[in-house]
Amino acid sequence: MRPTTLADKLESYRLLIFNSKDAEVKPLLNAIGVDNAYITQGIALYTETTDLVDTQKKEYQEQSLAYDNYFVAKDAADDNYTRTYKLVKVMSRNDKDLQNRLKIGSEKSTAIEGWIEDGIDFYNLLQNETAFLAPLVKFKLTANRINAEAKALQDLKTLRNQATQEKGQAQEATRLRNENLDDLADYCTELKALAQLALESQPQLLEKLGVLVRS
Predict the structure, then answer these.
(1) Minimal CA–CA distance to 56: which of 179, 142, 138, 213?
(2) In a domain, 143, yes or no
(3) Which of 3, 23, 51, 105 is 20 to 30 A (C-alpha) from 40?
(4) What total of structural domains would you count in the chain?
(5) HEC string of the chain?
(6) Is the pLDDT of residue 1 over 60?
(7) Is residue 215 part of a domain?
(8) pTM above 0.70, yes or no
């Protein structure tokens, strides 16, 4: 049966390449020019490819972790920002000038970058309204809370940048892996064809290379 998964394909490549050094197979391959240098080239290509496969898995794991951290932080920052914004909107309802300064009621950006910047701007403006904030301490809207929520949005920018970087690294790792897989597949197609020629008189030896022979 033809291998379908990546793991199956790699195993078939491994059998073909490494077992070409078998004591019975090697002399027959050598006879048609498949020498040590040729097989060594294949071993190096196989090793490089499997290393890139492992790297690609690692990069996608790191990407997943980075996005998990980002979305957890985003949900927390969104909850805090929404709660504080609503409180400020209610408590400033009778002072339209204050609401204008705080941009209460202004249209908010729907893009994530704009949403973060809108939030940071809101907290910066709020920190300047000391007279308004003083009586709100009893509602737990303290300077420490405002600072912490503002910092959470700043940190969110960093987490998003990290997640974006990890995504780029994962994509590049995939490109390199696929490029090497193509080279390895091409090499093994050639080696298999050469082995079938070399072992034509002893086709049963092809089984050692993972090549099924019809009985």
Answers:
(1) 179
(2) yes
(3) 3
(4) 1
(5) CCCCCHHHHHHHHHHHHHHHHCCCHHHHHHCCCCCHHHHHHHHHHHHHHHHHHHHHHHHHHHHHHHHHHHHHHHHHHHHHHHHHHHHHHHHCCCCHHHHHHCCCCCCCCCCHHHHHHHHHHHHHHHHCCHHHHHHHHHHCCCHHHHHHHHHHHHHHHHHHHHHHHHHHHHHHHHHHHHHHHHHHHHHHHHHHHHHHHHCCCCHHHHHHHCCCCCC
(6) no
(7) no
(8) yes
pLDDT tens track for 80-130:
999 999 999 999 999 999 999 999 998 888 899 999 999 999 999 999 999
Residue-wise pLDDT for 41-74, tens only, equals 999 999 999 999 999 999 999 999 999 999 999 9
Q: How many CB atoms are closer than 10 A to CB 142?
A: 13
Assess if residue 151 is contained within a domain: yes
- Would you say residue 158 lies in a domain? yes
**Whole-number Å distance between alpha carbons of 149 and 153:** 7
Which residue range forms the structural domain that includes residue 49?
6-209
Q: Which amino acid is at 196?
A: Q
DSSP state of 111: S
What pLDDT is attached to residue 126?
Answer: 97
* Tens-place pLDDT, residues 3-53: 679 999 999 999 999 999 999 999 999 999 999 999 999 999 999 999 999
Match 């503002």 to its residue by tokens.
Answer: 150
Give tens-digit pLDDT for 142-193: 999 999 999 999 999 999 999 999 999 999 999 999 999 999 999 999 999 9
